[in-house]
């Protein structure tokens, strides 16, 4: 039996464990620096930066998703961005991920979102195939750009 429940602050350590499991599973190419304190301070404050849900099969936690809202100037409406979705490997392929995406799609409709988007590592072929199978479109016309703390500081100090 699958349950999908909003995460609580007491779940911070579990979320941290799942984040690290996901990074290892994906061979994530960057350092993982998130802490339990980061999770507590940013997901569970009065105005959280993101939200999390936890998946339970037979009352045992087996995965999570973290998401947040964006805004699109071209639609004039908010969007839902899925930052991470992870189901433990031994339970993958049983429809849990699809049910999580359905849960989040219903939330997107309820929140009047014009879009539901996420990223996938180019090396994560199983995820890419799964996303295509459920009808998601891979956008070729958009490049994702990123600046991390060093680059942000460097640009900020130039006073442009």
Automatic annotation (TrEMBL):
<keyword id="KW-0689">Ribosomal protein</keyword>
<dbReference type="GO" id="GO:0008080">
    <property type="term" value="F:N-acetyltransferase activity"/>
</dbReference>
<comment type="similarity">
    <text>Belongs to the acetyltransferase family.</text>
</comment>
<dbReference type="InterPro" id="IPR000182">
    <property type="entry name" value="GNAT_dom"/>
</dbReference>
<dbReference type="GO" id="GO:0005840">
    <property type="term" value="C:ribosome"/>
</dbReference>
<keyword id="KW-0687">Ribonucleoprotein</keyword>
<dbReference type="InterPro" id="IPR016181">
    <property type="entry name" value="Acyl_CoA_acyltransferase"/>
</dbReference>
<dbReference type="InterPro" id="IPR051016">
    <property type="entry name" value="Diverse_Substrate_AcTransf"/>
</dbReference>
<feature type="domain" description="N-acetyltransferase">
    <location>
        <begin position="2"/>
        <end position="157"/>
    </location>
</feature>
<protein>
    <submittedName>
        <fullName>Ribosomal protein S18 acetylase RimI-like enzyme</fullName>
    </submittedName>
</protein>
<keyword id="KW-0808">Transferase</keyword>
<dbReference type="Pfam" id="PF00583">
    <property type="entry name" value="Acetyltransf_1"/>
</dbReference>
<keyword id="KW-0012">Acyltransferase</keyword>
